[in-house]
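ping. complex inputs:
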Amino acid sequence: MSSFPLFPTEAVRRPVASVALNSPAQVFERLSALPKLAEVTPASRLTVRLAPKMVSSGVCEIDALTGGLPRGCLTEVCGPISSGRTSLLLAVLAAATQRQEACALVDVSDAFDPLSAAMAAVNFESLLWVRCKTNPSQRHGDTEKTHQKHKNINRLRMETPVEQGLRVTDLLLQSGGFGLVIIDLGDVPLKMARRIPLTSWFRFQRAIEHTPTVLFIVTQAPCAQTCAALLLKLSAVSFQPSAQTPSHAALLNDLKIEAEILRSRMPRKPAQSATAAFATKTVRAG
Amino acid sequence: MPFACIFVPDFPVEALLRAEPSLRSQPLAVLEGKAPLQKVLTANENARRVGIIPGMTKLQIEACTGLSFRNRSALQEAIAHVALLDCAQSFSPRVEDAAPDTMVLDLLGMELLFGALPEIASSLARRALDLGLAANVAVAANPDTAVLAARGFRGVSVIPEGKEPERLGNLPVELLLATEQDAQQILETFRRWGIRNLRDLAALPDVPLSERLGQHGVYLQKLARGDTSRTLVPTEPPLVFEEAIELEYPLTLLEPLAFLLSQLLDHLCSRLATRALATQELRLELELASEYREEDNVGTGVLARPSQAQARQRFRRTLRLPLPLLDPKTFLKLLQLDLNAHPPGAPIVKIHLAAEPVRPRPGQSGLFLPPSPEPEKLQLTLARIAGIVGEDKVGSLEISDTHRPQGFRMQRFAPHNSFSPQRHRATEKNNSHCSVQMLINSSVSPPALSAAEGCLHGEFSGSSDNLVTALRIFRPPAVVTVTLREGKPTFISCLTRKETRGEILWAAGPWRSSGDWWEQEGWARDEWDIAVREETSIGLYRLVRDLLGGRWLLEGTYD
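pong. complex structure:
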């Protein structure tokens, strides 16, 4: 029983190898039949990618440090709890909404505080707030019938808030037209945030490329990796209230935040670690 | 003074074909009467070719293979009539509703807008076809001649002034008496006189004809000669945009329903477009079969499963849009998403779709305005997101006028209208403000240079003045155990957040607040701001004591 060879044998190769190339004209003719290699641009001659347009983050110190937030790129801000991430998020949001841009906040942990946002001068008319954390058992005012319905919905979809957030972000970016899209993963445990596949971040980055959208991510630790054009790490400078029983203002006013650039793909890449410090103020002076 | 007439031959057939366009290439007969005494009222050209004529019984035509037959639908005829009226109104404001299948238009001055008379006639026929009706169109110097020509000639015909007797001559005399009550008697008289067509009638002497048939005979002769003159009686129909379809069998799946909705939306949008209108509200009403009950089939595409119980008869959904739109595909997708989230719960036997007409939005945006999502895409995106997270979890927020914690409500997201002059002025103001700032701060550091450059484009207008210590809310609040010393919290332990456990370094408070005590849902609480040492840093939290419930809650973290 004869079997078909897995590799081309001599007999199979012979007709190709036996083509006689007698003259330079024949050689040229044969080469011209091949794909036009001359038209392929070598890597060294690729056009230089234009520097992205920068927009204000709403914090002068951050703007001075980074030159602003790059449009059409992914900016990631990470830091532990009480490190000023949300304060910076609100400042960025306020700056974008004051520029009359449509903004979207994908709130994976449903942690957004409208009162703080109002104090930060966020214009709510331009803000689309998507709250991902759904827990049917916690809904108030649900009848037994609607509760059963929500249970069915949950069973059918079986999506975690992070998955919901990624799907929603995908839809928002594909829809286009938003000046700022924020994914707030600030309360998502680190091990869950790191499970987000890198392809998701690549897809997001690809979706906003050549668009005026700023994609802003808030996390506890870096997870977008090389997809982030700008990675900032925030940390609170240790503070010591003057009294053992400080007032609200003494505790929450003038909180010192330090921002450090961990990665930047901007032309003005710092040679060494660059930091900037800024302070927040309390909502209520009391 | 030119007039045009749009006439739809075999109107009951055309009305049904408009609802079921797939039958247009097949033989179709329309039946009238009560079963089992149904008879053919009219048939399309394909059916006439295979020998179907009006008056045949249902039993007779059932023997004909390949023939489709439907019962006459008053609903479809009414809708087709309104569509025909829309078609006429899109060309002229003076339209006479002569019959359900006939519209007469005054074309005076319309040449300047739509071109020469033959072009107008062709456009009318095309517009009618777009609305799902194959119509004959005729243009003549008086309305009656236009009506006769439209009823007598297929397609588009233009009769020049003075050529009426010549052009109408070959038409049969039955056309004159198509709507007459005593037509048979007069036709019998004409037959005995040997008069077969309009040319024969026009050639009769006036006085003897008047002596034998009276003034009615003279009027018929004037019609045959094409020299009548009368004033048009224009009609002004109300702006009602509704489409409906009755189904032969109940629908149980979403996919075939989408096909029918697509067809209805196409018709509705075409009609709105003919009046240069758009819609901001779509009302869908589904009539349901009675022997089924509602079941929860969210996301499965199945509308219902049979059961024994009785249920509601009608299912209504209203789609409200923040902006006027006129895109049938967008409407269809929105309706699909809405029905997928809210299935009617029973098989559907009738679909009724209505649109609220509004003026369309201007079509051009400003060149230098900030980015804004396209309204059509945005509505689809919002509907899809609502399908993922729930309808009450997406939108823009509005802070309520209350001191109650979490006093806000979600509302529909409608970003600034890109065409509003207010928005344009705001952008201009930002730009000028930034330019002034840059002039004042002449000594700027090199890293901030690009920021200053950006000021020219209105991008770097922010300052750090608005940088507030923000709160991140825990929804729902975490229940904690607190140890007190001299009335102050000194130790905290949280079961749901394992990292929040330890001695309280600093505590500020309490701030007591209460409200709504005059209602059932009153609230009273003490707020503390605390600092707790964690593994790598110090966490700042808002601790709340619910004075009514007596529980300690961790409401959020300052970040």
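Residues 433 and 461 of chain B are 8 Å apart (CA to CA).
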